[in-house]
Write a structure and sequence with these properties.
globular, alpha+beta, 2 domains
């Protein structure tokens, strides 16, 4: 009986240890990969975005009565530029410009208790792609950014997730042969 109890305790300990390793691996991967982002088109993009040399992040407003931290709007331009660079989409200082504008429809931070374990934080923005010269709206999408590991919770990560969603949407309509090397 004592041997059987020792075997059960060892087995439970091994399972707990493996579970902890899985969490550590998941947190490490989340730290390396960053926030996630995904666009959901509402009005399909009506043109090939390869005609644009410049991608300008215009005004994105808080449609939640001031509940979106101001820091998000400060961090978003840098995150957007970084995501464009990562996808090898050129962004010249001048040229035909695609304006990205919109409003935050939903912003959610994990409660303090979730930060101790794990939690999901997300942001959803209605984004328009606009030809800056004509003012024509070329497409509309809800862009969502989220984090799901405690190591990636926070405003900077949600800014990265939203930027990633916007750039994924642009990326789907930007020709491969016009990307930077």
């Amino acid at each position: 009986m004592k041997r059987r109890a020792m075997l059960m305790v060892s087995l439970v300990g091994l399972v707990a240890m493996i579970g902890g390793c899985g969490t550590a691996i998941g947190e490490g991967a989340a730290l390396a990969m960053g926030a996630k982002g995904s666009p959901t088109p509402i009005k399909a993009v009506s043109t090939n975005l390869g005609i644009y040399q410049r991608f300008e992040l215009g005004t994105i407003t808080d449609d939640m009565a001031g509940k979106v931290p101001r820091q998000l709007f400060t961090l978003l331009p840098g995150a957007f530029a970084e995501e464009l660079k990562e996808e090898k989409i050129p962004n010249a200082r001048s040229g035909k410009t695609l304006l990205i504008q919109g409003k935050v429809l939903h912003y959610e931070s994990a409660p303090p208790s979730a930060k101790a374990l794990a939690g999901v934080e997300f942001i959803v923005a209605r984004i328009e792609l606009v030809d800056k010269d004509s003012g024509q709206v070329l497409g509309v999408a809800n862009c969502a950014g989220w984090t799901d590991k405690r190591i990636t919770l926070g405003v900077p990560e949600k800014a990265q997730g939203l930027a990633r969603a916007i750039v994924k949407w642009i990326d789907k309509h930007y020709p491969e042969n016009q990307r930077t090397k």
